[in-house]
Fold:
Amino acid sequence: MLKVVNRLKLASRTLVFTACLAVASACTPIFENHGYIPPAEELAEIKVGVDTRDSVIEAVGAPSSSGVVRDSGFYYVRSKVRHYGPKRPEVVERQLVAISFDQRGVVRNIERFGLEDGIIVQLDRRVTESSIEGTGFLRQLLGNIGNFNPANIPGATN
Structure:
């Protein structure tokens, strides 16, 4: 009987230790990096007033996005997001490199911005809204029963 009690104590201690270890590891922050900005060495190769759009793409790569207005500029964006347990993800670092061009497509200016420079701009993720949101499975399955028209079947004759 004593051996069984000792084994249960050992098993319960192991279980408690494993549970504590799992809880501690669940609260470890996880960092994700999104996007790309060119290194300072590559940006130094771009000559203001000399390089064009094509030479910029050759030197530092294609931009993450470009300006809404035609010929306005290239934008390279990198974000670092921290996920910590059940909390909402938080942007801890964001850098933006903006390369602007004149009407001829020649580099006019190169600027670098970060979170510390001012207003946080939320990057918009375009997600298509679902027309079936809030509709149950049976309603989706049986919803077209009254809308059946045999004339719409390919190969059907009237």
